Amino acid sequence: MKKTILLLFLASIAFNCKQATITYNDPIPKHDSLKITSKVLNEDRTINIWTPPNYEKSNDSLPVLYMPDGGIKEDFPHMANTLSELIAANKIPPYILVGIENTDRRKDLTGPSKVAYDLEYIKNPGGSNNFRSFIKNELIPTINKNYRTNAKKAIIGESLAGLFVAETFILNPKLFDNYIAIDPSLWFNEQYLVKNFESLTKNNDYTNKKLWFAGSDAEDIFKYTKQLEEKLKKQKPSFTWNYSDEPTEQHNTIFRATKEKALIWTLNN
Q1: CATH no., domain 2-267
Q2: How far is residue 169's CA from residue 80's CA, in Å, rounded to a whole number?
Q3: How many CB atoms lie within 10 A of CB 116?
Q4: What is the distance of C-alpha 14 from the center of its chain?
Q5: C-alpha separations of 21 from 5, 14, 15, 181 in Å
Q6: Which residue ranges in the chain fall short of pLDDT 50?
Q7: Which CB contacts under 8 angstroms, 24+ apart, belong to 22-30?
Q8: What pLDDT is stored for residue 25 in this prediction?
Q9: Where are the domains of the chain?
């Protein structure tokens, strides 16, 4: 166990070094920003909203794609630009993008854990249930009040945000219709979500849900995304799912490498 923790710790250092060597200069698209004073989280949260060009030219109500890591200095610009390109090419239907800017990312995106490595890497885990409650009870109603939305909702996330997407799908599938989890950190809490997948999903309704997930070459991730794939193959669940095995991608490249095919597969009927 100690060896595993050490390897994971060294992997996290290597990951951070890789991240530092890659820079992107994504143009920031025209968008709205608002602040929500959250009673659930006991703090203000910045929300960024991008609407496709046809939103201003019609009275149509549109589906919404929600995204953790949705700050202007995070993944919001490149995701909005990608949606714009795919919509213009008629590869996906028009979607509104709602990005949630981070405050304490590692807390918000993880469930509770008492595992030694988790506590070394994530000082205060266990905030995912409150974060989910914020999205359900404060954020979604605010977006529905201020924008023309229909009932369809999707969520996308990578790494710890991918873990949050997977956890939400498994525990609260009714919250969204479509789920995209790119390189989800399924190692968290000694692979609790994968190990207990059957029991956690036994009594939930997954009718008409879609799940797309992917794994990179990161050993502490692809082992468990593949395990989840094998479980889904054996279970033959009621929902539609797709696993994209990406052994040539690293943890810090897989999001941009797979986002287009993930969106095309997931957001189309």
Answers
A1: 3.40.50.1820
A2: 23
A3: 11
A4: 22
A5: 25, 11, 10, 24
A6: 1-21
A7: 22/252, 22/253, 24/78, 26/77, 26/78, 26/81, 27/77, 27/81, 28/72, 28/77, 29/77, 29/80, 29/81, 29/84
A8: 84
A9: 2-267
